[in-house]
Amino acid sequence: MNPWDERYGVDGFAYGTEPNDFLREVAPRLKKGRVLSLGEGEGRNAVFLAGQGFDVTGVDGSRVGLEKARRLAAERGVRLETVQADLADFTITPGAWDAIVSIWCHLPRAVRAAVHAQVVKGLAPGGAFVLEAYRPKQLEYKTGGPPSVDLLPTLEELKQELSGLDFEIGRELDRDVREGRYHGGLSAVVQVLAVRRG
């Protein structure tokens, strides 16, 4: 069984139904249009963006998570397209997206680098990539996220992987994260808002 199906199979929402704080902060800076949300899970971020007038597609490997995402979208009265796929095998259509979002989408370093190369090509001119992830220092806090440094990017790694984008925000910080039952407390994060020019 997919471990994420197991996590999302419990009652309620594992990470709540409210959007990520950083995504909420930068959403007004995104160009209205087509948004691809990577590792969308139970839909809280995609549904938020759909409610802001974006045309959102959420991709995740968990069938259970995406079922909950569709239910949440229906409850909120918004349209959400979902695709069940392993991001290691998923193709991001070049030039198709006005924004791509990656919130707590922790992938092995090699897979992440390949996905981020596709992200750069997948954005339309003027399109933006939004990411928040735990960084390696998070292993000290143990307040959420995976227990493997291979899954935790640094800002420097992200700048290399996203070469070709202009970073409007690129920062490492410690902040209080309160999202459902699995993210709670002081956390070491990296945040990115990067734009494809021309």
Beta-strand proportion: 25-35%
Query: Helical residue percent?
Result: 25-40%
Shape: globular
Helix-strand pattern? HHEHEHEEHEHHEE
Helix-strand makeup class:
alpha/beta
Number of strands: 7
The spatial strand order of the largest sheet comes to: 3-2-1-4-5-7-6
Give the radius of gyration. Answer: 15 Å
What is the average of the pLDDT values?
A: 94
In angstroms, what separates the terminal alpha carbons? 43 Å
Can you describe what's shown?
By secondary structure, the chain is α/β, with parallel strands linked by helices. Helix content is 30%, strand content 31%. It contains 7 helices and 7 strands, in the order ααβαβαββαβααββ. The chain has helices at 3-8, 21-26, 44-51, 63-76, 109-122, 138-141, 155-161; strands at 34-38, 55-60, 81-84, 97-103, 123-134, 166-179, 183-195. It is globular.
